[in-house]
Amino acid sequence: MTALLDIIDIDTAYGQSQVLSEVCLQIQAGCAHALLGRNGMGKTTLVRSVMGLTPPRRGEIRFLGQRIDGLSTSEIARLGIAVVPEGRQIFPNLSVRENLTAFAATRSGAGHWTLDRVLAMFPRLAERAANMGNQLSGGEQQMLAIGRALMTNPRLLILDEATEGLAPLVRAEIWRSLALLRETGLSILVIDKYVERLIELVDRHTILERGRVAWEGDSGALAQDRALWHRYLGV
Ligand SMILES: Nc1ncnc2c1ncn2[C@@H]1O[C@H](COP(=O)(O)OP(=O)(O)OP(=O)(O)O)[C@@H](O)[C@H]1O
């Protein structure tokens, strides 16, 4: 079966500084995958490699069988990969509704997300639909960033530190939304540090250690092996 995303043996560098070495990661359609590792281990760089922002120096990246390393970021996004970046990056001077509709895309066979559906998923955003981006709390901004990514009707949603800096109750709300998204069959790659929540949410995990894959396996195996958490995640 062709994988949805297939990262094959990539090396990625910033100038002289090589950050990723021989990284492989595969996500099947309909699956959720977590990318784990301590700070600075190369998780965001992997996302940048996939999106063509820092293309790999070696190796291949395939999406639905098609090679995407070498394509521009906008071409990759048009194929159906949406990223919710670290730091959210919503438009402060647009309303919630405008932030969402500015990104709407119709792609047959993928998702059919509409403004109404996104607002039904995030009732807090529905209440604040007319508010400006800069009037939202951190959690609401994060929901808006996820909603905006959904409006592109992605085949793969990538979330980089979606719960970073949020209060525990808001974080719980984001985790609930991600679980609902999973139930819709959306494929997800999530970077986060809350390994217990990730074990509940996703099917498979890849742990990066200094830019290399240190471990790969399913939630059952990661849940049982606390030594892995300690060695690679510092928890
Ligand atoms: N634009 C850049 N230029 C040079 N080096 C960079 C750049 N961005 C990141 N790095 C370096 O690459 C390494 C991996 O960073 P990356 O952001 O991918 O890690 P991460 O696992 O996502 O960590 P974090 O959780 O802190 O975001 C780090 O040593 C970092 O200093």
Number of helices, where a helix is a run of at least 4 consecutive DSSP H or I residues: 10
Q: How far is it from the N-terminal to the C-terminal residue, by CA?
A: 36 Å
Strand order of the largest sheet: 6-7-8-3-9-10
Number of strands: 10
Radius of gyration (Å): 17 Å
SSE string, helix = H, strand = E? EEEHEEHEHHHHEHEHEEHH
Bound ions, cofactors and other small molecules, one mention each: adenosine-5'-triphosphate
The number of domains is: 1
Report on the structure:
This protein has 235 residues and is α/β, with parallel strands linked by helices. The chain has a single domain (5-233), classed as 3-Layer(aba) Sandwich (Rossmann fold). Helices cover 35% and strands 26% of the residues. It is built from 10 helices and 10 strands. The chain has helices spanning 43-50, 73-79, 96-101, 115-121, 123-127, 138-150, 168-183, 195-201, 219-224, 226-233, and strands at residues 5-14, 17-27, 32-36, 58-63, 66-67, 81-84, 156-160, 187-191, 204-209, 212-218. The strands form 2 sheets. It has a 6-stranded mixed beta sheet with strand order 6-7-8-3-9-10, sandwiched between helices. A 4-stranded antiparallel beta sheet has the order 2-1-4-5, with helices on one face. β1 (5-14) and β2 form a beta hairpin. It is globular and about 45 Å long. The N and C termini lie far apart (36 Å). The relative contact order is 0.18. The mean pLDDT is 92. Residues 14, 17, 19, 37, 39-45 line the site of adenosine-5'-triphosphate. Belongs to the ABC transporter superfamily. GO terms for molecular function: ATP binding; ATP hydrolysis activity; branched-chain amino acid transmembrane transporter activity.
